[in-house]
Amino acid sequence: MRLLIIAIYVVLVIVLQSVVFARLNLFGVSPDLVLISVVSFAVLQNRGKATVFAASAAFLQDILSFGVYLNTVTRVLISALANNIKDSFAGNEYALTIGLVLFLTPVVMLLESGFYVFFQGRQVDPLWLLPTIALAAFYNMALSLFIFPVVKMISHA
Amino acid sequence: MIGYSPYRKKRSNFLPVIIVLLAVFISFSAFRGLFGVRTLLQAALYPFQYAALSVWKGVTGVPSAITSQRSLLKENAALKDELDELRPRLLVTDELVRENQRLRGALSFMGGNPYRFRMLAAQVIGRSPDPYFSVLQIGQGSRAGVRKDMPVIVADGLVGRVVEVSRYSAKVMLITDAESSVAAVDARSRDFGVVDGSSPLRLYMRHVDAGGDVANGDVVVTSNISTIFPPGIPIGIVSRASKKEHDLFYHIEIKPSVDFSRIEEVFVVF
After folding, report:
1. For B6, which DSSP code?
2. Which residues of chain A lie closer than 8 angstroms to B173, CB-CB?
3. What stretch of H or E contains B42?
4. Between helices B37-65 and A47-64, what is the axis angle to 10°?
């Protein structure tokens, strides 16, 4: 039953991300519902479940995107990193998630831009990238305040 | 609350590593499409996206539906004034179009009129969440005859081209994407160049000979040498054109004629 709820949540997140949140952009920056969910899940669940969640959600995100399966790579890495950090942490998991989202959003975006610059020869304008990263980090952090309780509810359903 | 434990069990990173390696391998392999699974999943997600879009439009449409009648009347009057102003211009344009058609006929450009293309209207279903890819997902696919590399336009100008097609939907790479290149000309001076994407707000026109004549405010349109895009479709307006003394090419920035953040319907050109 819990598996079904989580599967429905994954589809819902992907659909909301591509249809609704893509339209809720602020200066061209959209919140990343998948990243927030992946970090929340990594904080709340064990490594195996968190990795499977991250891989399936990011894979669907890549299906709706174009090009390489980069979301799958970055989200799985982020999930593992968040899980490792959780293992050396004692305290409030809500605060940990919010802090991780704030810290890991720039990490993901820098990883992705690095990939595009070094492997695909794309030009990424730093004047565009840096404000985008800052805005995305705060946007994601604000949204994680609402997403974390939802993920907590479904992961313990 | 996560409790303190000095002797936590060391967990294996085997599964994440395997998944990452698999994703990297697939990304750079010839079967990136996963033998049709990609298009199949895309088609499976389409009904959910369509339903979400309908709900979203219903929700966001409510405020506009209750807009006061007074503002609608005001808008109507303004549009009538605008129409009265445009009607004489339209007559001149019609005459120019007829003249153009006659000249083209005389030059034996049979069927060469770029504006006779067949178009298919499509709703924008989704957008790529990835800020590095400027990709739209549209609600028409191979079932409606959409094929890869078909141009996509709106009334304001060029949007992009189809890059991936599934049965009920397709992905459109916007001209602002860093991988996009469009053969273009300055509509006034006819200087040729290539318009490359960079960020959602800017385009660059490259390889324009420094001996040419490009000025701020010039309209840039698609060139007739393009094998994908029909000629004459507006791309944008030159917002900055400069060249230094020893430069071989102009440095040209273009403001796109289409506001890509607000596109809701597009036309696929057949």
Report:
1. S
2. 66
3. helix B37-65
4. 80
Q: Do A68 and B13 touch (CB under 8 A)?
A: no
- pLDDT tens for A30-55 read 888 999 999 999 998 888 888 999 99
Provide the mean pLDDT of chain A.
86
The answer to whether the beta carbons of residues A57 and A41 sit under 8 Å apart is no
Residue pair B166/B39 in contact by the 8 Å Cβ criterion: yes
What string of DSSP letters covers B51-101? HHHHHHHHHHHHHHHT--HHHHHHHHHHHHHHHHHHHHHHHHHHHHHHHHH
State yes or no: pLDDT of B174 exceeds 60.
Answer: yes
ipTM: 0.84
Mutate to test the interface with B, among A62, A66, A120 (most CBs of B within 10 A): A66
**Chain A residues within 8 A of B19 when measuring between CB atoms:** 51, 55, 72, 76
Residue A41 CA to residue B39 CA, distance in Å, equals 28
Put simply, whether the predicted model's pTM sits higher than 0.80 gets the answer no
Partners of B219 in the beta sheet?
B237
Print burial letters for B115-141: b (CB count within 10 Å at least 16), e (below 16).
eeeeebebebbbbbbbbbbbbbbbbbb
Phi, psi at residue B32, to the nearest 5°? -65, -30
Contact between B229 and B161 (Cβ < 8 Å): yes
